Amino acid sequence: MNETNEEVEIDEEELFEHFRFKSDPGQEIIRIDKFLLDRLPGTSRNKIQVAAKNGNILVGGKAVKQNYKIKPHDEVSVVFPYPVREIELIAQDIPLEIAYEDASLVIVNKPSNMVVHPGYGNYTGTMVNALVFHFDNLPSRIEDYFGRPGLVHRLDKNTTGLMVVAKTETALSLLAKQFYDRTTERRYHALVWGNVKEDGTVTGHIGRSLKNRKVMAIFPDGEHGKHAVTHYSVIERFGLVTLVECRLETGRTHQIRAHMKHIGHPLFNDNEYGGDSIVRGTITSKYKKFIQNCFDLIPGQALHAKTLGFEHPVSKEYLRFNSQLPQGFETILEKWRNYAIHEEEEA
């Protein structure tokens, strides 16, 4: 399944079969969601439909939609990108930086090097493990097979910044709809390689790379992936790198990271999209040491979710939150300011 409320294509090379059924020779022709509803304990028709929409239900090894009609001798599999294991949400006393909280929701300022929710390979130490320790009875959406209470969106492991977490079923539903309808405001600060000459917009379908399934790639419209739009504007130029603000119109996995690489400006220190090596500048020992010192200040990409705005699910008041850049990110910017000044003086 997906780590956000947005659709993400499943990695077919890492699917695990959780259930398998074969229809009888005399099977009546019925929809697959009805067929599975009678065979999967503790589930709902809605949850089955969501699973089908996300490619988790196969017939004869091929994904089918929820309105597929079961026929005699059909072989049906229910698959997910994690092994068969019930993921227990372990409450852990992990500190959380709370920017705002009321009866309906909480705004968390996520640190770097923290996975948002448990999944295959990350069953503990996540933000959700901390949330279930600090808050009781957080709601979950019906499609949440991983168990990620209160979440309506996410940030990558090394991306820092603001996230909203719902504390009630009503808040979860209404916030999720805002993200789906793209009415939320999400602005990020990113340090990218190269001199970004002007503001612009990147529009390009995002889907899993056909060469490396762990990263996302940009595809021509209609060929692969999902429609995605990122608007960017220059905040500060340092010559070899640029601080930009990115505003998300959609919310695909790795959207900013993939889009900025696509236009030739990978994020600084992004080890999955080519930003963790020297992309611009001369290869001298002094410069290489300077870059490495900058890399050492943050564990991954220089990307921070700085602004988050949305309509409160109960009061209907528009809320807008801003956060400070992490210290490591700020220090990198200061180093580049000093570097740019020094280079200008020597020119």
Describe it for me?
22% of the residues lie in helices and 26% in strands. By secondary structure, it is of the alpha+beta class. A hairpin with a 3-residue loop joins strand 14 and strand 15. The radius of gyration is 22 Å and the shape is globular.
Question: Helices and strands in order, then pairings?
Answer:
Elements: E1 16-22, E2 30-31, H1 32-37, H2 45-53, E3 57-59, E4 62-63, E5 69-70, E6 75-80, E7 98-101, E8 105-110, H3 127-134, E9 160-166, H4 169-181, E10 185-193, E11 200-203, E12 205-208, E13 216-219, E14 229-237, E15 241-248, H5 255-262, H6 285-295, E16 303-311, E17 318-322, H7 327-346
Parallel strand pairs: 9-16
Antiparallel strand pairs: 1-6, 2-5, 3-4, 3-6, 7-8, 8-9, 10-15, 10-16, 11-14, 12-13, 14-15, 16-17
Give a quick set of tags describing it.
Structural Genomics Hypothetical 15.5 Kd Protein In mrcA-pckA Intergenic Region, Chain A, 9-stranded mixed β-sheet, alpha+beta, 347 residues, Pseudouridine synthase, globular, 3 domains, 7 helices
Structural class: alpha+beta
CATH topology of the largest domain: Pseudouridine synthase
Counting structural domains, the number is 3
Per DSSP E runs of 2 or more residues, the count of β-strands stands at 17
How much of the polypeptide forms β-strand, as a percent range? 25-35%
- Cα end-to-end separation: 53 Å
Helix percent band? 10-25%
Largest sheet: 9 strands, mixed
The CATH superfamily of the largest domain is known as Pseudouridine synthase
- Average predicted confidence as pLDDT: 87
Just give the CATH class of the largest domain. Answer: Alpha Beta
Number of helices: 7
Query: What would the principal axes of the Cα set say about the shape?
Result: globular
Order of helix and strand elements from N to C terminus = EEHHEEEEEEHEHEEEEEEHHEEH
Ranges with pLDDT <50 over ≥5 residues?
1-13
Rg, Cα atoms, Å = 22 Å
